[in-house]
Amino acid sequence: MTVRAAQRQVVTERLAGHLLATGLSRTSVRQLAAAAGVSDRMLLYYFRDKAEALGEAMGHVAAQLGGRLEAALPAGARLSPERLLAESARIVTAPDVRPFMALWMEVIAAAARGEAPFAGIAGQVTAGFLGWIETRLDIEDAERRAATAGLILAAVDGLALLEIGAGAPAALAAAERARDLRFTP
Q1: What range(s) does the HTH tetR-type domain occupy (predicted)?
Q2: Is the pTM of this model over 0.70?
């Protein structure tokens, strides 16, 4: 790895931490550079533009969350939709995952407003989450498995919305109820 690549990795990690701590409220080039501990010029030396810096940082955030998900439900695990929903609900309502989910809600909102580069980021992260869910579902039919993955993702993201709008107790109560849901074959 070149020195530039190694330094870019450090900057990416710092940007990811900044996004988890502040959300999207402090994402001007100057604010991102300060968070990374570099000058504006150096930030743009490591990345073509702000969009690339945010994309790389969000990729790092997604990889961090993916690592937590992988540790909780390793590849190769095949679960019923009910069990996967309940386990996913438990994971995303954990206190250490809340900053990830809050940032994710901000990214989705920015994508809905058409703000660059968030539509692309949202699409990539959503595809990654859907793929992660699909590979863990014990459903033979590919079409049904994909549709069920979408439903589980919508429910899990809904827990993050519920927590923001109604508070953690409401989200935790809803996550607990996820265990009682049944999917028809």
Answers
A1: 5-65
A2: yes
